[in-house]
Amino acid sequence: MKVLVIDVGGTNVKILASGHSQPRKFPSGPKLTPAKMVAGVKKLSEDWDYDAVSIGIPGPVLLGQLIVDPRNLGRGWVGFDFRRAFGMPVKLVNDAAMQALGSYKGGKMLFFGLGTGLGTALVIDGKAESREIAHLPYKDSTFENYVGVRAQKRLGKKKWRRHVEKIIAAFRDRIHPDDIVLGGGEVKRLKKLPKRCRAGDNANAFLGGFRLWEGPSAKEPAGKVLKMLPKKQKKTA
Fold first, then answer.
1. How far apart are CA 204 and CA 100, in angstroms?
2. Between these two residues, 42 and 223, which has the higher pLDDT value?
3. Rounded to 5 degrees, what are φ and ψ at 166?
4. How far apart are CA 180 and CA 196, in angstroms?
5. Which of 21, 72, 79, 137 has its CA 20 to 30 A from that of 229?
6. What is the largest CA-CA distance in the chain?
7. Residue of 72, 74, 77 whose CA lies nearest to 118
8. How far is CA 214 from CA 10, 14, 54, 88, in A?
9. What is the pLDDT of residues 76-126, one digit of tens each?
C-alpha cells in the first residue's frame, strides 16, 4: 500500500508519500480551512501515487474523529469528511501522537512535542494516544503558557528551560515510562536534555504516518524516511 502522510502544523503543512524521501510543504496559518488544506495537498502531490492518507493534526482526536477545531488554524475542521475529499481511506490522528508513533522503539514511551505549543502522547505496545495536557492548569496559567514558544520570550530561555525540565520530571515520576522522547522544533533551545530523555525529530511524524497503516515494525517506506533523520540522537545519562 502506498501512503501519503500529511503533517498539519501551525506554520506549514508538510507531506511525504511512500517511495519518496524529500518532503514537500506549503504555508499553513489561521486562515487554513480543511478544504484549503486538501486542495493544497492535492496540488503539491499531483505527481505522486498513493492509496491511503494519514493526517496528523494539532487537536484532540477521539476514535479517529477531531472533536475540537485546532486553535491556530481556520474553522470547519470538526466533522469534515476527509475520506470523501481525498476519495480514499484516511486515518486522522493527533500530530503529537503521529510523531510519537514514529519515534517509538518499544515499551512504554512518553512523548513531549515542544513547538508553538505543547503536544504530548503516550505509546504502549505500538499504540499511540495523545494526551491533551497543554491547556490544563499549571501555576497561574497552563502548561503551554510556560513551555510553549511564547513563554521563551516572556520568561527568557533560562526560566523556560527550568519549567520544561520541571514538567517533564513531574510526568516521568508519575507515569514511570521506559523511554521519553522530546520532539518539536524548540528542543534545540535546550542546553541539555532532561534526565532519561532522548531527542526526536519532526521527520518522525512521517514514519508515524506510515506506521498507522503498516504497524510499528514497518521497514518500508520507513527506511527512506530514516535517511532524513539525524545519524545520532542526543541523549543524557
1. 8
2. 42
3. -65, -45
4. 7
5. 72
6. 50
7. 72
8. 27, 20, 11, 17
9. 999 999 999 999 999 999 999 999 999 999 999 999 999 888 889 999 998
